[in-house]
C-alpha cells in the first residue's frame, strides 16, 4: 500500500502588481502568490497538491511553517491518511508549541490550510472522484468525525451536524443534476479594481454583461468622489436591474464606514464588503444596523481567521453574506463547520475567490455547500476573477456566469510543472529574465 | 549621529519542559523560548534589544518574520527612529503584502512586537532613562502620535487619548514616589503548574505566603477531581483571606466552562482565566454573565491577538481583568491604546507574565499604566513567575510581593551574552551537551 515519501514545496509568485489587477484600497501592489506543496507517494500515479494564497512578501514564511507541519506526514500510509483526514488535521492542530503562535490564526493557520488542502486533494485522487463528490458521498457520521467542532459547542454539536447532513441526503441527486445543467452562479470582480481607468471599467462592465453575469463588484474606499463617479459609470453600463456590490477591503473606521456607505447607497447596492477590520464582530454589527436600513447587506470573511470568528459574526447577526476563504480557513475540516453554522443562521455562504487558485477550490466548495449542506441556491453567488487559471492542470470553468460542476478527480489544486519552473521565486526562469531586463 | 548598522537575531530556547514548569491544560511540554533581536549601531555604546516569547517549535518562524521586518531599519538614523517609534511601527504595519498574513495577528504580529520592543529599548537607552520614565515624561500629544489607534475610532479618538493622559499628569510625581517605596503588587503562578505533585503545591503555596504574596493562581482544566483537590489544598494552606485565582488555558467549550467554574466556586475565586477560545468575545460574555453571580470575574488577554479584540472584550463587557501580553500586542504602540480603553471602561489591567522576560517588560508596563494612565492601584495585580530572570542583564526585582520600580536605562530586554551562547538553538553549548548525553 502506498506511503507518503516526500514533500515538495514551491514559493510561486506572479508579478500581478505590474497590471494593477488586484489593486484595492489596502492592497496596492499585490503580487499574487501561492505557498504550494505536493505530497508525493511511492506510487508515482498518486499524489496530492495544495496551497495557501498570499500576495507576495511573506509567502516564504508560510512555506517555512508548511514544511514544519507537512514533515509530520512523511512515512504515513496513504490509505490511512485518506480514510481519516480529520486525524491528520488534529495532529497538526494539537502541536501545542506551534499553537502558541496563534492559536488558529496567522501564518501557522494558513500553513495548516495549505497542508490540509493537499491531504483532501490526495484523498479525492485516491478515491478517483472530484472532491465535492467524495464529501457529498461520505456517510454523515464519518464526515462529521473529520470536522473541527472545537469552540463551537455553544452553537453546533456533532449530533446536530450529522442530523443536518442527513436531512439533505434525499435531495443530493436532484441537486447534482441541476448543477450539471446550470452550474453555480458567480459574480465577477474583474472590472472593478481600483487601479483601472474609467474607460477600462466601463468596457469590462459591458463585457461582463455580455458574458451573462448578473452581478458586478467594485472596489471602493479611495477618494469619495472617485467612488461616486465609478459607481455611477458601472450602474449606467449594467442598468438598473443587475446587482452591484462594493468592497472597501478594511480601509474604514466603523463610523466612517457607516457614513461612506450611506453616501453611496443611492446607486442601489447588494452588499458592502469588508467595511472595517475583519476582526471587529461588534463593529460589523453596528455597520449592519445602519446599512440594512438602505437595503444593503454586510459581507465579510475573506480575512475571517477561523471558525470562532464566523461563529460570532453569525451569533451577533453581524453578517449577511458569509465569505469563507478556501486558503485561510483550515480546509474542509474547518470550512464545513462554518457552512453548517451559516445554514443554521439562514445566511448564504458566498465564498471569496480570485488570487491564485481560489476559484479552483471554490468550484468544489460551492457544490458541497449546495448539495450537502445549504440546499436552495437562491441568493447565493460565488466570486469569480478571470486570471491565472491557465496555470492549473484542472482549471475551473465558468459558463454564462456560473461555475461548472467539476468532473476530474481531486481538489483542482494542481499547478502545471512549466508554471512552477517559470514562476518559482526567486529563481524561476521568468523571474530571472525580469531581473536581467531590469539590470540591462 | 549614530545609525542602525546591523540586526542580530538569536533563536533562544530553554528545556523547561523537563521540569514541568509551565505545564497547564493545553501546554504540556512548553520549552520557554525567545525570538530575540539586537539592533546594533555604529556607536558601540548604543543598541536596542527586544524579543517575542514562544514555547519552542515555531520560534524560528517568528525569527524569519522578524528578519524581514527588522531589515527595514538598517541604515536608519538612531535619533530619528527614537524621536518617532510610531513612524517605524506604521512602516512595519503598512507592508500590505505582509499584512495579508494577518492582519495584526499570528507570527507577523509577534514579529512586529519583537522588533518594536527593541526599538523602544533603543529609545530609552538613547534617552538614558528607564522606558517607563521615557513614556511618562513624553508630551501627551507626542506620545499619542506614536500610538496605533486604527480601528479604534468608535471608542477612542486621538484627542480623547491626549486629554486622558493630560488629566493624570498632576499625579505623576506622587505616584512615582509611592511606587519607589512600595512597588506594584504582583501574584505568583509558580506553585500552581498542573504537573506538580500535591506536596510540592502545598509547599510552594506556603513559601509564597512567607514571601508576602496576597494572591495565588492555580492551573485547572484537567480531571475535575484533581481541580477540586488541588484548590482545596491551596485554600487550606493560604487561608480564607488571601486571593485565589484559576487558569484553564482555553481548554473548555463555553457551556463546559460555566459548569466547571460553578463546581469550583465554593473555594472562593477572584477570577477564572482563559476559560475558552481567546477569540471568543461573545463566549466570554456568556461565561461572565454566569460566574459573576458567584463573585468570580473573567480574566483573559494573554492570547489577545490585537487591540481590536480588546476593544470588543471591553465593549461587550466580557472581561473583568485585562491581561495584556507584552510580546503578543505590538509593543508600546498597541499596548497603551489598550490601557486607555481599559481605563475608559473602568477595568483593571493585570498583565500576563512569566515565560522568558515577560516579567522584565511588565515591570515597566505596570508602572506606565499606574503613573500615566489608570491611577489608583486598588484591584490591580500583575503576574510574576520566578524563573529564568538570571539570564537578563537587568532582571526585574520583586520584593514583598511587589514589582520594584526599574531604575536602569532601557526596557530591561537585554539577555546576557553567555546565555545566548549557551542556549541558542540548536547549536548553543548547553544544547550540544544535551545531545551528547542523549546519544551517549
Automatic annotation (TrEMBL), chains A, B:
Which SUPFAM superfamilies does its entry note? Enolase C-terminal domain-like, Enolase N-terminal domain-like
- Gene Ontology terms: biological process: amino acid catabolic process; carbohydrate catabolic process
Q: Name one GO molecular function term.
A: magnesium ion binding
- Its EC number is 4.2.1.68
InterPro entries from the UniProt entry: Enolase-like_C_sf (IPR036849), Enolase-like_N (IPR029017), Enolase_C-like (IPR029065), L-fuconate_dehydratase (IPR034610), Mandel_Rmase/mucon_lact_enz_CS (IPR018110), Mandelate_racemase_C (IPR013342), Mandelate_racemase_N_dom (IPR013341), RHMD-like (IPR046945)
Reactions performed catalytically? L-fuconate = 2-dehydro-3-deoxy-L-fuconate + H2O
- The name on file for this protein is L-fuconate dehydratase
Amino acid at each position: 500500500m502506498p506511503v507518503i515519501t516526500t514533500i515538495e514545496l514551491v514559493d510561486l509568485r506572479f508579478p500581478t502588481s505590474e497590471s494593477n489587477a488586484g489593486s484595492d484600497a489596502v492592497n496596492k501592489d499585490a503580487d499574487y502568490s501561492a505557498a504550494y506543496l505536493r505530497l508525493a507517494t511511492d506510487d508515482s500515479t498518486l499524489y496530492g497538491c495544495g496551497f495557501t494564497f498570499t500576495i507576495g512578501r511573506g509567502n516564504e514564511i508560510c512555506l517555512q511553517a508548511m514544511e514544519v507541519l507537512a514533515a509530520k506526514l512523511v512515512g504515513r500510509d496513504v490509505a490511512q491518511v485518506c480514510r481519516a483526514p480529520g486525524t491528520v488535521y488534529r495532529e497538526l492542530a494539537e502541536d501545542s508549541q506551534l499553537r502558541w503562535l496563534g492559536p488558529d490564526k496567522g501564518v501557522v493557520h494558513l500553513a495548516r490550510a495549505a497542508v490540509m488542502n493537499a491531504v483532501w486533494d490526495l484523498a479525492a485522487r485516491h478515491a478517483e472522484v472530484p472532491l465535492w463528490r467524495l464529501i457529498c458521498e461520505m456517510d454523515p457520521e464519518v464526515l462529521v468525525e473529520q470536522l473541527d467542532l472545537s469552540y463551537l459547542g455553544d452553537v453546533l454539536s456533532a449530533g446536530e451536524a450529522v442530523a443536518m447532513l442527513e436531512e439533505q441526503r434525499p435531495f443530493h441527486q436532484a441537486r447534482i443534476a441541476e448543477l450539471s445543467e446550470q452550474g453555480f452562479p458567480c459574480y465577477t470582480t474583474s472590472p472593478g479594481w481600483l487601479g483601472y481607468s474609467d474607460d477600462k471599467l466601463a468596457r469590462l462592465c459591458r463585457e461582463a454583461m455580455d458574458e451573462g453575469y448578473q452581478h458586478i463588484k467594485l472596489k471602493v474606499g479611495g477618494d469619495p468622489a472617485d467612488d461616486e463617479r465609478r459607481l455611477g459609470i458601472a450602474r449606467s453600463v449594467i442598468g438598473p436591474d443587475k446587482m452591484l456590490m462594493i468592497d472597501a477591503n478594511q480601509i474604514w473606521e466603523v463610523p466612517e464606514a457607516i457614513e461612506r456607505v450611506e453616501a453611496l447607497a443611492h446607486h442601489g447596492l447588494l452588499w458592502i464588503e469588508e467595511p472595517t477590520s475583519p476582526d471587529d464582530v461588534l463593529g460589523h454589527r453596528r455597520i449592519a444596523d445602519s446599512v440594512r436600513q438602505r437595503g444593503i447587506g454586510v459581507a465579510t470573511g475573506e480575512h475571517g481567521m477561523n471558525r470562532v470568528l464566523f461563529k460570532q459574526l453569525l451569533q451577533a447577526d453581524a453578517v449577511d453574506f458569509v465569505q469563507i476563504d478556501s486558503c485561510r480557513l483550515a480546509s474542509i475540516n474547518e470550512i464545513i463547520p462554518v457552512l453548517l453554522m451559516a445554514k443554521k443562521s439562514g445566511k448564504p455562504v458566498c465564498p471569496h475567490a480570485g488570487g491564485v487558485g481560489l476559484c479552483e477550490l471554490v468550484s468544489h466548495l460551492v457544490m458541497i455547500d449546495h448539495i450537502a449542506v445549504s440546499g436552495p441556491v437562491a441568493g447565493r453567488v460565488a466570486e469569480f476573477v478571470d486570471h491565472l487559471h491557465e496555470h492549473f492542470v484542472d482549471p475551473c470553468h465558468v459558463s454564462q456566469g456560473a461555475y461548472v460542476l467539476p468532473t476530474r478527480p481531486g481538489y483542482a489544486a494542481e499547478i502545471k510543472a512549466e508554471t512552477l519552473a517559470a514562476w518559482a521565486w526567486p529563481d524561476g526562469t521568468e523571474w530571472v529574465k525580469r531581473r536581467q531586463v531590469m539590470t540591462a
